[in-house]
Amino acid sequence: MKIIKEKDILEKIYHAVEKASFTLDPSIKQLIIDAQKKEKSPLGKKILDVIVQNLEIAQNKHLPICQDTGMVVIFFEIGSNTRIEFQHFETIQQIADEAVKKSYRDFYLRKSIVNIPDRKNTQNNTPAIVWYKNIPGDQFRFSLMIKGFGSENTTRLKMFRPTASIPEIIRFTVKCVKEAGPNPCPPVFVGLGMGGTAEKAVFLSKYALLDAGQPRNNETAIFEEQLISKINALGIGPGGFGGDITCLDARIKTYPTHIAGFPVAVSISCWAHRSHRGYL
Amino acid sequence: MIKIQTPLDTKIITRLRVGDSVEISGTIYGARDAAHKRFIEILKNNGRLPIDIENQIIYYVGPSATPPGFIVGSCGPTTSSRMDRYTIKLLEYGLKGMIGKGIRSKNVKKAIVEHNAIYFVTYGGCGAYLSRFIRKWDIAAFPELGPEAVYKIEVEKFPAIVGIDVKGNDIYF
Fold this sequence. Notes:
The structure holds 2 protein chains of 2 kinds.
Chain A: E1 2-5, H1 6-22, H2 26-38, H3 42-61, E2 71-79, E3 82-85, H4 92-106, E4 129-135, E5 140-147, H5 149-152, E6 156-160, H6 166-180, E7 188-195, H7 198-209, H8 218-232, E8 247-255, E9 262-269, E10 274-279
Parallel strand pairs in A: 1-3, 2-4, 7-8
Antiparallel strand pairs in A: 2-5, 5-10, 6-9, 7-9
Helix pairs in contact in A: 1-4, 2-3, 6-8
Chain B: E1 2-5, H1 10-15, E2 21-30, H2 33-44, E3 57-59, H3 84-92, E4 97-100, H4 106-114, E5 118-121, H5 127-130, E6 134-141, E7 150-164
Helix pairs in contact in B: 2-3, 3-4
């Protein structure tokens, strides 16, 4: 049994929030730099130049990449052979919220979370959205995403007929990006979740975004590449001002579903796709 | 590059065309969703707005917190379409310009034409970059709204692009 200390989890999340808010993962930054070389529209190229400058200023001056420092989404993977040694808290959610609270205060991030229904600001950007997955072994891992709501507001769910074809689903996904237009700050990252139940499909679409910039899985690679080229053919371009690059990456996650249905969800991330992985 | 000074001059605004790059200098106001909702409630009750919007620009912005030694944190534009339902009334009360990102509704576009107003767009997600064009950043009203307060902002050569001009030409269509 591996013992995981509360303060180690707290510290890892605290720094993951910091890291994600001020710098992009190198694989994500590389996709933007590649786009800068490929984009032919002068205004589109200008937008990408400013985006790259923005990344440099954010890193050098320690200013958040974007003022929308998001809602924090954390996906935990917790090995069966681990035990968390709680000291001040009773749940992982509480540890995560404490880390979020501290990092948003210490790093001058925007506190954007409000209570429902009164929409009063919670003043510390908590609660975080926390998901758990039980895995075999003694690993304790997490992936954290800083999710801005310009792109979150463009999330779509559609319950397709069970006989719907993959080309139909791809057309729907492309249509979602078209309708989102300039609002989610293109060039975007697209996550497509297929199968499960309604909420599972939405979950998968969000989870898929974490794969952006990583090596592709053979089963879905062909559809992901189709999505990228069809979305780029929309011509929305950087900033939505027209151009060749609308999609920096598209990722798909699937799950078995019911004979009577085919839930499909699309999540979009802005070009500032801020995520960080950690393990203990 | 066209230089723009606030308060806006209708003669200059009329000459701007969609896609023109501009640099804005002077005082602008920052306000987003919650502040807009309050503005409209005030106007409905025949009250006075906490800021004078006549010939002014509202920037759709909610900055990140200000670190010590900085004027402001990151301060890029938020999605303008959420303000559409409040914009027409503000244009009727003399608002002349807006800075944001993304599409506006047909009705807002019509009102922009009707009032000889202008919609600028700026770099989405580039709040660190845009903070370099800010000279002063003060809370003008509703401090209790936190990042959604109304701000009085001094800008110098703040970069933007004409998104909708006085003729209703739209950069996104």
